Amino acid sequence: MSGTSAIVQDDAELAARLADAAGKILLQVRESGLIGGKALGKAGDVTANQFLICALREQRAEDGLLSEESKDTEERLAKSRVWIIDPVDGTREYGEERTDWAVHIALTVDGIPTIGAVALPGLDLVLRSDQPAPLPPEGSPLRMVVSRTRPAAEAVAVAEAIGAELVPMGSAGAKAMAVIRGEADIYLHSGGQFEWDSCAPVAVAQAYGLHCSRIDGSPLIYNQADTYMPDLLICRKEHADLVLEKVKQATQLA
Predict the structure, then answer these.
(1) Residues in binding site
(2) Is residue 5 part of a domain?
(3) Which amino acid positions bind Mg(2+), per UniProt (predicted)?
(4) Is the pLDDT of residue 21 over 70?
(5) Do 32 and 123 sit in the same domain of this protein?
(6) Number of domains observed in the structure of the chain
(7) Which of the residues 32, 63, 174, 196 has an alpha carbon 20 to 30 A from that of 106?
């Protein structure tokens, strides 16, 4: 066996392989049965992050890198190409042995999410920006996916205003992919997130033809000095104007 790793030339293929491999590692850690709960979540975060950081340094040494589980530096801000990753999105769900958690791998170019892969290891799925498929039929009534533990007030208000059903779910990646997979029609979040929570899901969702923006309609720009990104809207394009209007109304009434 060669001791030299082969460089994956295609960025989308690399993102998908990284997401898939990290997901399999995480499942192995969980299936060991040696730890559980919060300790399992911490072990998963550390283990997957170490693999992803080493692999990206090997495969794309010249690119910038931002990970939830690594100390951030200003070095990435001078880079055009920056990988933004979340080794375990939904650590709580992972530790509770649920399926609504994800692995996020994204490549931004000049702040724009260009390539993305989101693994749903519990479902044995990897959704990727270079392999979009037609969206399933929308729900009737509409369905809005929200946090299963702390649904955002704006999301609840908008759902009531448009007659949408609430679908509780875990990680941000799982929620965004639920819209792609036909389990929901709208993902509205206003409770505070960071760039790694949404970058890969947005890259994939945009490739599938979904609307992606801040909840005031402004674009999502990544690789910023401040990685806090408090709100997000991912939905079918035909619902975007209505949802944005209702968000504005709900915000004014708050």
Answers:
(1) 68, 86, 89, 197
(2) no
(3) 68, 86, 89, 197
(4) yes
(5) yes
(6) 2
(7) 32
Known binding site for Mg(2+): residues? 68, 86, 89, 197
**CATH number for the domain including 118?**
3.30.540.10
Residue 2 has what pLDDT?
A: 52
The model's pTM? 0.95
- Does some domain include residue 27? yes
Q: Is residue 107 part of a domain?
A: yes
* 131-181 confidence digits (pLDDT tens): 999 999 988 999 999 998 888 888 999 999 999 999 999 999 999 999 999
Residues 90 and 151 in one domain: no
Please check whether residue 137 lies inside any domain of the structure: no
